[in-house]
Design goal:
The protein is an alpha/beta fold and 607 residues long. 20% of the residues lie in helices and 24% in strands. The chain folds into 3 domains: 6-39 and 140-472, Peptidase S8/S53 domain (Rossmann fold); 46-132, Alpha-Beta Plaits, CATH 3.30.70; 488-606, Jelly Rolls (Sandwich), CATH 2.60.120.380. It is globular.
């Protein structure tokens, strides 16, 4: 049975009432500042040249250099390497350090040329280095009229360094689901929204005259005194989802308004919060649907999201319903970004910030220190700008609506909260996926954490640092994220813990099969202290029903999933100890096909 508990009104206090400055006050907090007009050039992601430096090459003298003599052997090596990539390589001229410029005969992506350069160097030990001859353009600076007020993108102290990432990638091809209050149409978001869904089943909370439907627009979430519980205050409509969506993907370089982190990504608006908040059951369905999963009675999502942003929360431990929904989304490759909460307390008591497998985000102020309201603690992974409206221009400026209760005109406002920090990280995740589409949720999380820069001010319990967009995509000194681990085949016999197949790389996908109706397969990995192991079992057919179990180093069962035939099973367990321990994952036959053809399954293991 599904667990159904209300986070109404608690949820609103974290997700929406966390916005300290309302729309009217926020508009008064700062006036538009004309930013310098930026360049309109796009990033040149292709080149038709490569630079090759041979170990014996001599630096040239004055003037533009003629090509130094190249042996027939080297010419032949160039030719062979080029033919593998469908290009005809032709030496052109030398540059000052003696390196040769080689023409490829056609334009290729920089990534393709880099692969060709690596192949060439591997085939010729006389090469010192080979690399793409990249085309540079003037640094991109958006011409949006209020970009100068968006310190969170470009300032050295508290910024994301998103402006440096935009010279490489802008989010093209990535859908980001904003699970929130829905959206208001806005001129600065024109063309940025794709079809979403309203998952609010209770018409009183939805305030749009009905329950679930395909209209994810936000009619307003204003309340009157006592509406959300005895003594609860009255509140204006927050238009919270519109503000969050603008931070992720507001139209950029359009000569008006504000910029978004991943401004060529698309937003999938998913409405779960209305008057007084929203229910866990609705939110769980929204998570599954957003990632491309099936929800009974709801049309299939034509725009599955690789990134899910949840700037919402309530108190208590992570419930089973939400955790299972997160596991389901992760099994389809969606990374889930969650706000840490705004009570200035340990985020371990904030749900879904304390769920396994999510990227939990704390908020920093303009100085790069912890914002006074931000939750903190060991469950926090990274931090990002959340703002502080107590100082002029210190909040997060984004798209909004001017209506106090019902929709009014387009507007902009400064808000603050971990609700504002999370979408900045979601935007960076979209940039990463736009550049490297094969990244897994675990790889995105680990890269965000490993490339974050040190806090310039005090931010205890805020994770590994402030998210750095340029480093996260591989545009800074940090190497690009690694490619996803390749699949490995199960090796029999592995019917006991003593013969379990060893898995050493997080994100590995094991290809296995149930050989008979009595078959059981074990896999073992060493789980470091504080890490969460997520095991995801996918059946090879709709009639197969295999079950998933997890055991500790003593052989005691600590997790299981026994879903019906054809459904994904997923289990997450955390090593709460201070040392690394073995964890055993078991796949067991229950019903369905067997053998090399009919008994196939895949098991993904991440930590």
């Amino acid at each position: 049975m599904k667990q159904m508990h209300s986070i109404y009104p608690t949820l609103l206090n974290v997700a929406v009432a966390a916005v300290i400055a309302g729309p009217m006050a926020a508009v008064a907090a700062g006036k538009p500042v004309q930013a310098p007009l930026g360049q309109t050039e796009t990033v040149i992601g292709q080149t038709d040249r490569m630079i090759v430096k041979y170990k014996d090459a001599m630096p040239a003298g004055k003037g533009f250099n003629k090509l130094q003599g190249m042996s027939q052997t080297r010419m032949a090596t160039l030719d062979r390497a080029g033919r593998q990539f469908g290009v005809a390589m032709r030496p052109m001229h030398s540059i000052a350090n003696g390196a040769s410029v080689v023409h490829l005969g056609k334009r290729m992506s920089v990534e393709q040329v880099a692969n060709l350069a690596r192949s060439l160097k591997a085939s010729d030990p006389s090469i010192e280095y080979a690399e793409p001859d990249r085309i540079m353009v003037a640094k991109f600076t958006p011409n949006d009229t209020r970009y100068a007020e968006q310190w969170q993108y470009f300032e050295n102290a508290g910024g994301l360094r998103a402006n440096l990432a935009w010279d490489v990638v802008t989010g093209t091809g990535v859908n980001v689901a904003v699970i929130d209050t829905g959206y208001r149409p806005h001129a600065d978001m024109s063309g940025q929204f794709v079809q979403g869904y309203d998952f609010i089943a209770d018409s009183a909370i939805a305030a749009d005259g009905n329950g679930r439907d395909s209209d994810a627009s936000d009619p307003g979430d204003s309340t009157v005194y006592g509406q959300c519980g005895s003594g609860s205050p009255a509140s204006n409509s927050s238009w919270h989802g519109t503000h969050v969506a603008g931070s992720i993907a507001a139209k950029t370089n359009n000569g008006t308004g504000v910029a978004g982190v991943a401004f060529n990504a698309k937003i999938v608006p998913v409405r779960v919060l209305g008057k007084c908040g929203g229910y866990t059951s609705d939110i769980a369905d929204a998570i599954i649907w957003s990632s491309g999963g099936t929800v009974s009675g709801v049309p299939a999502n034509a725009n599955p999201a690789r990134v899910i942003n949840m700037s919402l929360g309530g108190g208590g431990a992570c419930d089973t319903t939400t955790q299972n929904a997160i596991n389901s989304a992760r099994s389809r490759g969606s990374v889930v970004i969650v706000a840490a909460g705004n009570e200035n307390t340990n985020a371990s008591g904030s749900n879904p910030a304390n769920c396994a497998g999510v990227v939990t985000v704390a908020a920093t102020n303009r100085s790069g220190g912890r914002a006074y309201y931000s939750n903190y603690g060991t469950v926090v992974d990274v931090a990002a700008p959340g703002g502080d409206v107590r100082t002029s221009g210190g909040g997060i400026l984004s798209t909004l609506n001017s209506g106090a209760t019902v929709p009014g005109a387009d507007s902009y406002a400064y808000y603050q909260g971990t609700s504002m920090a999370a979408p900045h990280v979601a935007g960076v995740a979209a940039l990463m996926l736009s550049k490297t589409p094969g990244l897994t949720p675990d790889q995105i999380e680990s890269t965000l954490k490993s490339t974050a820069r040190a806090f310039p001010a005090t931010c205890s319990g805020c994770g590994t640092g402030i998210v750095d967009a340029s480093r996260a995509i591989g545009g800074g000194t940090t190497p690009p994220p690694p490619p996803p681990p390749t699949g490995s085949n199960e090796v029999e016999s592995n019917n006991t813990t003593g013969s379990a197949n060893s898995v050493t790389v997080s994100g590995t996908v094991m290809n296995g099969n149930m050989g008979s109706t009595t078959d059981t397969d074990y896999f073992v990995m060493q789980l470091p202290a504080g890490k969460t192991l997520t095991a995801t079992l996918t059946m090879g057919s709709s009639t197969a029903d295999y079950d998933l179990f997890v055991y500790n180093s003593n052989g005691s069962q600590i997790g299981l999933s026994e879903n019906p035939a054809g459904q994904v099973d997923s289990v997450s367990v955390t090593n709460t100890g201070s040392s690394t321990f073995n964890r055993y994952v078991r796949v067991k036959f229950y019903s369905g096909g067997t053998g090399a053809t009919n008994g196939k399954y895949t098991l993904k293991l991440s930590w």
